[in-house]
Amino acid sequence: MKNKLSLGNTFWVLLIAAFTTGMGNGSVFGAAMMCAVGRGPFESWGGWGMEAYNPSTFTGFIDWVMLVFGLAFAIITGLALQKHGALEARGQSSGTW
After folding, report:
1. Residue 6 gets which letter from DSSP?
2. What distance in Å separates the CA atoms of residue 22 and residue 81, rounded to the nearest whole number?
3. Rounded to two decimals, what is the model's pTM?
4. Which residue has the higher pLDDT, 92 or 17?
5. 49: buried, middle or exposed (CB in 10 Å: 19+, 13-18, 0-12)?
């Protein structure tokens, strides 16, 4: 049997569901950081135009953290789906109840 959970079959799940879930985790990290350190060493909150993606501003840092968390979660989910599909194609189970 072939692996039905290839990158081509799971691309939209990884792009939309996994990436946005990871970005949500990044926003929670940003909110926790904001509660812990306030604006801290950031001179500007950076909320307008391209300044919102400048990592030296507070908002830019949080936006980059969200993008990194989203990418990392999508990669981890993709690897897990690929491994699960390979096990399923061989007729094995990844665990028992």
Report:
1. -
2. 16
3. 0.79
4. 17
5. exposed
